[in-house]
Design brief:
Elements: H1 2-13, E1 16-17, E2 28-32, E3 38-39, E4 42-46, H2 62-70, H3 72-85, E5 94-98, E6 106-110, H4 121-140, E7 145-148, H5 160-178, E8 183-188, H6 191-201
Parallel strand pairs: 1-3, 2-8, 4-6, 4-7, 7-8
Antiparallel strand pairs: 5-6
Helix pairs in contact: 4-5, 5-6
């Protein structure tokens, strides 16, 4: 019953297929929309270190949105991964699970740095590691496309402009150095972030 309900809710919202989007650069897309309605191989979840979804009911974070639409199986799968690992997830690392009731095939979970006060070089390196870890894991599992949300902005207080710059530079460097043909979607929700990414990707 849960699966039928969640799939119908997603259908009502409308599913966006990656094949319907136009790249802004070769293999790179900029899309403003609800990542839980995007059909591609993998979407990235900005997770907490427990990797069990958001603990605040009805919270507006991406972690809560993804777990809600995927269904309870996603939390159970994450709990099993954490049980096998035996400790909380390290910042900058990534895990992969099925996407269950989401239109995507997989969810890649990564824990971004939490900013307390001044941004440090270590924070920047950890955020870049989030993107690299997800890309490497996606390639290892044969994914042809991946969608990134704005990791560590919002509740984790990473400055939006710096976060976007790191995201774009890291993806470009990864694709150049590894010759990966994975298609990357920068999924944007806020107008602020959309304008930042448009400038960085030269779409103006």
């Amino acid at each position: 019953m849960q699966d039928a309900y969640l799939q119908e809710e997603t259908r009502r919202k409308g599913i966006t297929d990656l094949s319907d989007l136009e790249p802004v650069q070769k293999g790179i897309y900029l899309w403003r929309g609800d990542i839980t309605t995007l059909r591609c191989d993998g979407i990235v979840n900005a997770a907490n270190s427990q990797m069990l979804g958001c603990f605040c009911p009805n919270h507006g974070c991406i972690d809560n949105a993804i777990h809600t639409i995927a269904g309870v199986e996603l939390r159970l799968a994450c709990a099993e991964l954490m049980k096998q690992q035996g400790h909380e997830e390290e910042t900058g690392k990534a895990k992969i699970t099925p996407a269950y009731n989401l239109p995507s095939r997989f969810v890649l979970h990564t824990v971004g740095p939490i900013i307390h006060g001044r941004l440090t070089q270590k924070d920047a390196k950890l955020l870049a590691s989030c993107y690299c870890s997800c890309l490497e894991l996606a390639d290892q599992n044969g994914l042809k496309s991946i969608a990134f949300f704005c990791i560590s902005t919002g509740e984790f207080h990473f400055p939006n402009d710096k976060a976007a710059q790191i995201a774009v530079e890291t993806v470009r460097e990864y694709k150049e150095q590894t010759h990966s043909e994975i298609e990357v979607v920068f999924n944007i929700f806020k107008e602020l972030d959309y304008n930042i990414y448009r400038e960085l990707l030269g779409t103006d």
